[in-house]
């Protein structure tokens, strides 16, 4: 399995790959992975029994602690699959299966059907039918002799955020040094805030299967007083199937990205980026952030993130960049709380189009872990003081007052 996506990786607990056998095939044994169930193998009298007799096996990766005898190269990461843009050397997974009852000729071996690939955040992948390609070749240890596979086929799975989830998972807020207003995430960006949040801490779990109950914690609650995280041990842990436990906010997004225009120098300008995790039940491993802005063509430095230009239009023009954490420093975005954020400063060299007016200094698009975030409306962007509607209104009112006073004085004279 190759993950060719530039900035979408698969996090723990990892990927699940499934297909349907065309005839009565079984899996005798596996290396580097395993199936979730064995299925009905009562027709077999062998010892050991087949690894899986299910008509539709579901394959998952082995954990890193698996015995060495069960491993193959590029396996056993717990299903975690980095993106190609972030970690190309490890953006692949491999496993071996021994198939039985399939025959050994071109007429008896049938291609599996209905491949599906699912991830912890939903089944947003749509897989193509299997199609035959040129047979794979394998070199001996000395590289002087090659053998080839009996048959090779490919399956391509494409991702759609709309299919993966019903709501967005992140939003963006803006601020700037020249305006005191902080533009928050749009209301109901990911979900709408529950109405019954008057208590200092509001925590709930579905009372029965199939009941979708909003869960959030009042932001006024002190971190040490959170029921699910208290050290006293009186609160039961959330069930594995419980929805994410979030702060109660107007946008109800698990992740917020804040873009602050920090400084305007003579030849450069500076932006501060803060990514905040508001989810008490999830950490983000090897997170990444993609930003789209026209000044990335003259990007200078990211001070505490790793950076890669995506160059969607070739090497001579770039308006998109990917950022991720530094290993052993900020590669983990921890759960909500005092340490649940990462931040950096970005330094740009001004190009000919640079301006602080009309929202030019803010990004066109923002992606977190491959999902597009909800941005504020352009009319809500922080504006320069000279373009403030309220300021213009005050100046107009002041002008009218001066004219009236002047006229009165002329009459008196």
TrEMBL record:
Keyword field contains Kinase: no
Domain COBRA C-terminal: 169-380
Key words, A-Z: Glycoprotein, Signal
Origin superkingdom: Eukaryota
GO cellular component: plasma membrane
Keyword match Glycoprotein: yes
Family, per entry: Belongs to the COBRA family.
Name the UniProt record assigns to this protein: COBRA-like protein
